[in-house]
Design a protein that fits this description.
This protein has 300 residues and is of the alpha/beta class. It has a single domain, classed as TIM Barrel. Helices cover 36% and strands 16% of the residues. The chain has 10 helices and 11 strands. The strands form 3 sheets. A 7-stranded parallel beta sheet has the order 3-4-5-8-9-10-11, covered by helices on one side. A two-stranded antiparallel sheet has the order 1-2. The chain has a two-stranded antiparallel ribbon with strand order 6-7. Helix 1 crosses helix 2 and helix 3 crosses helix 4.
Amino acid sequence: MMKQTKLGGTFTLPGTTNSLHRMGYGAMQLAGPGVWGPPRDIDTAIAVLQEAIAAGVNHIDTSDYYGPHVTNQIIKKAIHPYPAGLTIVTKLGARRGEDSSWLPALSRQGLIDGIHDNLRNLGVDRLDVVNLRVGGISEPKEGSIEEPLTVLAELKSQGLIRHIGLSNVTPQQLEQAQKIAEIVCIQNFYNVARRGDDTFIDALAKQGIAYVPFFPLGGFSPLQSSTLDRVAASLEATPMQVALAWLLHRSPNILLIPGTSSTSHLRENLAAAALELTPDAIRELDAVAANAPAAGRSAH
């Protein structure tokens, strides 16, 4: 059997001293439906964040284009001044149209504006980690990322960013990026059914770079979902808990950011770090095919 420690153990990002608990929290669902506008109940959103921190979560993933501005403002209202050891990771590379559409924002001025929006709405003088988000809705697209990454590197040299990560990228783009700046984390679409980044994850682990998967239940076929349901029932757990526990099992450099706007779901997600996966369960999950197409989704 495999048993996780509380909150999945820890991982330290390259060039930092903070040990992040591997079970973190993603703030996207704190915004309204479609990641647009305010939540139905802001007090509940605040309670979720405060409970996450009280439970030991010290890694929050967010972006100022969630809402837009909504999640960062809620984070600030809920837990500012921030506790020692907390790392807030934000993303740049998109913006929201007035019709709630998702639009690219990779121009120099767009990135500079995005940095200052995040600084203002989070209430900080420097951002802990900024991920440059490129590619498509959920998959990377090959191509140079030199121009926007150079802008982030300049902002880092100005003291506005501590560390830089990448989202929705290929191994080739990481290699290009590392000639411009140190990269501490990669955030891509990966889960028990979507395993296209298997080799990438192993290579990142050798370099000590964190891998942060999004959509832990995304892109599943009905057959794959039924397999996950069956394993979850055998373990008296939820499918999400099993999916999260498998990711923690997959590699020690994987950090999780499951999101929720419910305190009860938050507790369920955090409990996944203590879920025991039997050898039979792991074999069954490892047999799940990894060729399901992703459904259309909002940008992450």
